[in-house]
């Protein structure tokens, strides 16, 4: 082969090599760009800039809210001058009656501001809308219009609703006849769309259309159960957004505020976090900024959602729901609007009762009861407690990494909260402390009983004193209803008489015992993930498991079943009775018998027990004494076992947090 031909082949090979390297680099880059986190970093926009930018392409931008959230209203207040600068001179609102439009126009352009008139116009629209931030929008626009020069176009608020005649509703089942007497000018969203047509579209103007979330649905249609349809589903599309989208699909863009979504169950929980919690999780990973972003044609739009809104849809994702998204704060940091007592000045109960909205849904016997209902509605922490309790905890020390709905082939998926200590160094290796009831460990502001274990505070204090080995904490959430069935030791359960087993299955174990499956989840799925993602010691000497009450039972069971995995267990207020409804000792005796035959070797394992003396804890001492005898017989000494009694301490996170350092120092004592 001559040199020329050889060089030609060599050049061709080099060219192909460069091509493939470039191609796979491009694929890697494209893949990275498709992650939600990278997308947010490369497309980051502040919420106001994001919303305003949509008017470059769409004359009608719809913004959906959950009602009476202060931060949402403050955002709209601050948006007024920016809308004007972008050539948008209209804010269309659900919250106001069009019969009062002429008065409203005069108020917003008048020399003086009449606050009483503003409140009275809102009262005319809805006798219960006593939230100051809504009618204060009138004042914000009035103040802005005062800054404009003579002859400059004024900013308008356009009321989209009308005063419904609820006095005409005489009770009973809602039907077309009685609803048409209430909504005498037509269905609310048909009427609202006609106002937008007349005041905005016909005048070739732009507008921000601000309404409750449902009313701004565009391409999304809400499912309705229909028993005789083949798939049991029908779809409702009569919203303002739907009507506009049908006429002007290329001119409408729908954005939702970060809003809790109804759960499929509609109760327990009532609300869930959008995208199965992934939006808050993703934003937490980049510092929880306020941000606006597209759902349509973006990685965040591909996030799966299993809320009520996914019913009757296959593989429902967030872009099926809305076009864009505005995130201001996590749910746990949102506040309710300001209740204004002065809203009712000069109003009588007879006047209010005569136009009481939805009287078949809400009942009040007097004005004070009605006012209390209004105040309660703006209590966001109470209204959205179900979803707030699934928030990522705030910690005083270190950092929380949320593994959202961690999957398992053994048990139901659940959240996992991994705590990394301050100055976590991936080049160092750490022990691992697995803790049950993971939602109760770090942040009292989001737990159901407003208590916590103070895990980050306790470990950090011991770390500073160099009292313990360095560990990360893996908080394993319980799933609520299945907690008892996952924490009740399975092998002792199988030794119980059949009638007791059946009673437990029917009354507390949700029909099945799944403790061994829960432990398989921890040992064969969760622990391998943790050890692969974090710089840990994977051997038993550095792996510990801890819990309280039923969590104490599952901890002693875990170290007995998997002594090669766990080197230590802390069992606080161990619930030896197993079932407080039983008055005999059959269940605790089964536990104790199991320990006689299965406790791990005391030479290389440590076990800690304790109990208080108040409430449920007052039941534990006789059983703990029996367990202590077994521990001695099995060769446990002060080096490998502790049992402590805490007088005047009860069965609560507060009590466990006060003494957590004691088992931590025992299990994790520095070498």
From TrEMBL:
<dbReference type="InterPro" id="IPR029058">
    <property type="entry name" value="AB_hydrolase_fold"/>
</dbReference>
<protein>
    <submittedName>
        <fullName>Enterochelin esterase</fullName>
    </submittedName>
</protein>
<dbReference type="Pfam" id="PF00756">
    <property type="entry name" value="Esterase"/>
</dbReference>
<dbReference type="Pfam" id="PF04187">
    <property type="entry name" value="Cofac_haem_bdg"/>
</dbReference>
<dbReference type="InterPro" id="IPR000801">
    <property type="entry name" value="Esterase-like"/>
</dbReference>
<feature type="domain" description="Haem-binding uptake Tiki superfamily ChaN">
    <location>
        <begin position="52"/>
        <end position="146"/>
    </location>
</feature>
<dbReference type="InterPro" id="IPR007314">
    <property type="entry name" value="Cofac_haem-bd_dom"/>
</dbReference>
<dbReference type="InterPro" id="IPR050583">
    <property type="entry name" value="Mycobacterial_A85_antigen"/>
</dbReference>
């Amino acid at each position: 082969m001559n040199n020329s031909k050889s060089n030609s082949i060599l050049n061709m090979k080099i060219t192909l090599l460069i091509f493939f390297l470039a191609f796979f680099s491009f694929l890697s880059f494209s893949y990275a760009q498709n992650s939600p986190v990278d997308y947010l970093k490369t497309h980051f926009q502040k919420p106001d800039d994001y919303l305003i930018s949509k008017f470059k392409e769409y004359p009608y931008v719809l913004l959906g809210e959950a009602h009476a959230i202060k931060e949402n209203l403050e955002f709209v207040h601050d948006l007024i001058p920016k809308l004007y600068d972008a050539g948008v001179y209209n804010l269309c609102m659900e919250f106001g009656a069009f019969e009062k439009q002429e008065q409203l126009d005069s108020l917003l352009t008048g020399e003086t501001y009449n606050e009483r008139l503003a409140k009275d116009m809102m009262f005319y629209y809805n006798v219960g809308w006593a939230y100051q931030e809504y009618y204060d929008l009138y004042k914000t626009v009035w103040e802005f219009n005062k800054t404009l020069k003579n002859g400059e176009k004024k900013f308008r608020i356009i009321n989209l609703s009308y005063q419904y005649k609820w006095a005409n509703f005489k009770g009973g089942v809602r039907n077309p006849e009685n609803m048409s007497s209430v909504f005498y000018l037509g269905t609310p969203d048909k009427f609202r769309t006609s106002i937008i047509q007349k005041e905005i579209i016909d005048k070739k103007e732009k507008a921000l259309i601000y309404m409750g979330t449902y009313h701004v649905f565009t391409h999304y249609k809400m499912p309705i159960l229909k028993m005789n349809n083949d798939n049991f589903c029908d779809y409702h599309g009569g919203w303002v957004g739907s009507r506009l989208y049908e006429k002007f699909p290329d001119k409408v863009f729908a954005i939702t505020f970060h809003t809790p979504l109804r759960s499929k169950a509609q109760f327990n929980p009532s609300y869930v976090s959008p995208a199965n919690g992934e939006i808050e999780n993703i934003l937490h990973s980049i510092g929880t900024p306020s941000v606006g972003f597209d759902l349509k044609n973006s990685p965040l739009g591909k996030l799966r959602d299993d809320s009520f809104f996914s019913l009757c849809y296959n593989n429902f994702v967030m872009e099926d729901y809305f076009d864009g998204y505005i995130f201001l704060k996590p749910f746990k940091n949102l506040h309710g609007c300001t209740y204004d007592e002065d809203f009712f000045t000069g109003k009588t109960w007879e006047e209010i009762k005569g136009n009481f909205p939805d009287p078949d849904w809400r009942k009040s016997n007097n004005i004070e009861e009605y006012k209390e209902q209004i105040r309660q509605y703006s209590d966001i922490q109470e209204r959205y407690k179900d979803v707030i309790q699934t928030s990522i905890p705030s910690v005083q020390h270190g950092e929380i990494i949320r593994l959202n709905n961690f999957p398992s082939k053994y048990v139901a998926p659940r959240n996992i909260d991994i705590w990394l200590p301050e100055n976590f160094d991936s080049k160092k290796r750490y022990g691992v402390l697995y803790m049950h009831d993971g939602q109760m460990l770090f942040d009292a502001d989001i737990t159901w009983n407003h208590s916590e274990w103070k895990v980050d505070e306790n470990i950090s204090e011991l770390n500073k004193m160099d009292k313990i080995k360095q560990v990360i904490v893996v908080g394993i959430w319980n799933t609520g209803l299945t907690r008892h069935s996952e924490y009740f030791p399975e092998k002792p359960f199988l030794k119980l008489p059949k009638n007791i087993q059946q009673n437990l299955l029917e009354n507390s174990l949700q029909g099945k015992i799944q403790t061994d499956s829960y432990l398989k989840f921890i040992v064969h799925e969760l622990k391998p993930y943790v050890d692969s993602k974090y710089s840990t010691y994977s051997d038993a000497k550095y792996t510990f498991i801890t819990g309280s009450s039923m969590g104490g039972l599952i901890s002693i069971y875990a170290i007995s079943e998997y002594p090669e995995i766990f080197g230590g267990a802390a069992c606080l207020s161990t619930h030896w009775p197993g079932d407080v409804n039983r008055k005999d000792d059959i269940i605790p005796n089964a536990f104790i018998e199991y320990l006689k035959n299965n406790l791990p070797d005391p030479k290389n394992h440590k076990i800690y027990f304790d109990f208080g003396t108040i409430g449920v804890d007052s039941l534990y001492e006789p059983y703990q004494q029996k367990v202590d005898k077994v521990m001695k017989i099995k060769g446990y000494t002060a080096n490998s076992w502790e049992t402590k009694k805490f007088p005047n301490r009860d069965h609560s996170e507060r009590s466990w947090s006060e003494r957590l350092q004691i088992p931590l120092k025992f299990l994790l004592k520095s070498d």
